[in-house]
Structures are given as structure tokens and as C-alpha cells.
Amino acid sequence: MDDRDQQLRVFLVDIVTKDTTPELLEDRMNELESLLTTYGGIVVLKKFQKKDQPDYQTYVGKGKLEEIMADMQRLDANLLIVGNVLKPSQIYHLNEILRPIGAKARDRVDLILKIFDKHATSMEARLQVELSAIRHMWPRIFGMGMDLSKQWGNAGGGKWAMRGIGETNTEIMKRHLKYKVLKIEKELKEYEQMRKLHRDSRIRKGMPTIGIVGYTNTGKSSLLNAMTKKGILAENKLFATLGTHVGKLYIMTDPETGQGKEILLNDTIGFIRDLPPKLIKSFSSTLEDSIESDLLLHVIDASDPFIDERISIVNHILDEIGAKQKRIMLFNKIDLLDKTQLAELKKHFPGKENVRISVKNAVNLEEVKTAIISNL
Ligand SMILES: Nc1nc2c(ncn2[C@@H]2O[C@H](COP(=O)(O)OP(=O)(O)OP(=O)(O)O)[C@@H](O)[C@H]2O)c(=O)[nH]1
Ligand SMILES: [Mg+2]
């Protein structure tokens, strides 16, 4: 059954190490809540547990789990979302334990995948989401040597990959899924090759490309829209962008002669903490245009209290996917900062390459163009 068939009444729980600061705790919980809101659901209660070593079987500590279940029953909650990345067996056990009270359990990656699934509109994005879902569910289906039909019914993700197979035996399912993975990979390869052809032709024409990257919801699509009048969906939602969007930007380099440069801007899927590498890998064909670009614009939400952490998460993911080109940092949403905060931002990130902008109020967008030209 799909989660969305019923009203989701959700219990959010986050397991953190004992040294986690209250600020980070709050931020993690807020992000988890935004993920849920993006997906759709009502939070009936949120709790955290400080525990350095997650429970081997259920991730959440046993005592805590009892407490949670009592609360869930009292508040009529039907979904437990654990804000961490769980092992397949842990999710399985949680679901088994929750079954008698008519509730299910999901982890952070499940939730992100559900959002991806909901937001993927282009054929390519759909294929990528399906591939990540299969990769994510695989160990849950085959890795534990458990009763398959029972397990699948509970571990969630029902509509992914398994639809139409019926509950036959493990080997048939495995073969079917392997075949499906190969088929999707082949189709994605075709998209990839098409992109490569386009890239090569742009290189031949001497047209530079720029990748817009950054944490989710920082204003990447808004920036592309503002600079190229593209009209891409920009929303106060996590992972609004899943496919790629490209826009053409013309920058005048010599006002006297009227000469300029044509540049392609690529929008990219936003990054988030705890995004498993294999999940990012599924998006490689859309990420490639950015990874292979001549320059990266790293869009940052300047009003974010956890700005340093977000920047390092993005840099880490970029390193991981092999992006080596220069990165210009664009501190967006400065309209949300007061004078003191703006001065602090300048002090904290003094580099000349850093541009402070407000896409919303069209502030300093010319500076972005200057920074692009001087870095190409
Ligand atoms: N206050 C303020 N809000 C902004 C600014 N730029 C963008 N936003 C808002 O930030 C939210 C996210 O914008 P998007 O452009 O969708 O962000 P994104 O980085 O593409 O997000 P994903 O595709 O979900 O990763 C939207 O509600 C925008 O209206 C800005 O300069 N100031
Ligand atoms: Mg976007």
C-alpha cells in the first residue's frame, strides 16, 4: 500500500550522539519535519534519543521504542519516521514490532526517496528515482534471508519495483529486478550519451557551461530563472528540482563593441545531509552536466544558522562525485539578514570570490555575471 492512500499521522524520532548540541538537534529535527511536510503528513509528536551506539536490532533503543509505541497509540499515529539511515534489518524489525498497532516505520532515506518519487516529472528523473529505489530496497528484499512476502509487505516501498510480480519465489524476483536494473541503466546510458553529444557540441562551439549546485532549497532554480528567464518551478520545498534544467545566459563583456559571451547554466538536484552515495550515483546522468561544467556556482542560504555545516556537506558531496572545477560561493537570501548579520557574513566569508545576493530582490546579480566572466 502506498503511504499516501491514508492520512499520515507521524511520529518523528531522531537518534543522536550524546555530544550533539541543542542547536544541531533542533536543526536536524526541523529538516526532518520539512522533509515530511514536503512529502505530506501531520507530525503528531517528535522526540529524540541521545545514544552513542544505536540499537543493533531496532536502531531506536528498546525502552524508547516502548515509550514511542504507547505515544503512537495514544495519538493514533500510523507512521514512525526515524531521522537516521538504518540498516535493512533494523527497518524490518521495527516494522514487525509496529505491526500490531497498525503502524509502519521508515527511515530518512525512505522519506527522501518518496519525495523524489513524488517530484520526478521527466522520464529521465523517473528512471533515476526508480533505480535508486531498487538499489535502496535490494538488501531489504534479498539480503536477510527472511520470508519475502512477509517482509515486502511491511518494509514499504510497495509500488516500487515489485508491482505486478506477484509473490512468487525469491529467485524469480531477483532475476526480474536484475533485468529491470539493467534495462533502466541502459536507458539512462542513452540519456547520458545524448548529453555527452550536446556537451561536446557546446565545447566545439566554445560555449562555456556552468553548474548551479548547493544544498536543497537555497534558491538554485530561482537563480537560474532570474538569470535566464527560464520559468522553472522554484518552491519552498525540499528537492523541488530533480531533473536537469538548462538556461542560456548572455553576458556582455565589452560594452563598447557590444560583444559578449553566451553561457549555459545548469540547474541541479539539491544536496542534503546523510544522502547515501549510492543514491547520488543514481542521479549521475543529470549531475554530469554540472560535474563536467567549466565552473560551479555554489548557492548558499545566507540566512541559514547552520551555514558552515551545509557548505561542507555540499563540498563533501561534490568531492565524492568527482567535481574538480572552481567553485564560486553565492550567498543568497541576504534580504533576510539585518545589517549586523550581513557584516558578520562578510567577515566570516571574506573571499573576493564570494558574492552576496538576493535573487528575490534581484540584488547583486550583475556581480554574479562579473564573477563568472573573471573565472572562466
Ligand atoms: N527570501 C528569499 N527567498 C528566496 C530567495 N531566492 C529563493 N528564495 C526562495 O527559496 C525557496 C527555494 O527556492 P528554489 O529556487 O526552489 O530552491 P532550490 O535550491 O532550487 O531548491 P531544490 O530544487 O528543492 O533543491 C523558494 O521559496 C524561493 O522563493 C531570496 O533571495 N530571498
Ligand atoms: Mg531547484
Q: What is the third-level CATH name, the topology of the largest domain?
A: Rossmann fold
Distance between the ends? 51 Å
Helix content: 40-55%
**Ligand species:** guanosine-5'-triphosphate, magnesium ion
The main β sheet shows up as: 6 strands, mixed
Instruction: Report the average pLDDT across residues.
Output: 85
> Helix-strand pattern, N to C?
EHEHEHEHHHHEHEEHHEHEHEH
Which structural category do the helix and sheet elements fall into? alpha/beta
Rounded to the nearest angstrom, the radius of gyration is 23 Å
Spatial strand sequence of the major β-sheet: 6-7-5-8-9-10
Highest-level CATH class of the largest domain: Alpha Beta
Uncertain segments are 145-166
Estimate nothing, just give the exact number of structural domains: 3
What fraction strand?
Answer: 15-25%
Number of helices in the DSSP assignment: 13
Q: Count of DSSP E strands?
A: 10
CATH architecture of the largest domain: 3-Layer(aba) Sandwich
Shape: globular
Say which CATH homologous superfamily of the largest domain is assigned: P-loop containing nucleotide triphosphate hydrolases
Question: What's the quick description here?
Answer:
The chain is α/β, with parallel strands linked by helices and 376 residues long. It is built from 13 helices and ten strands.
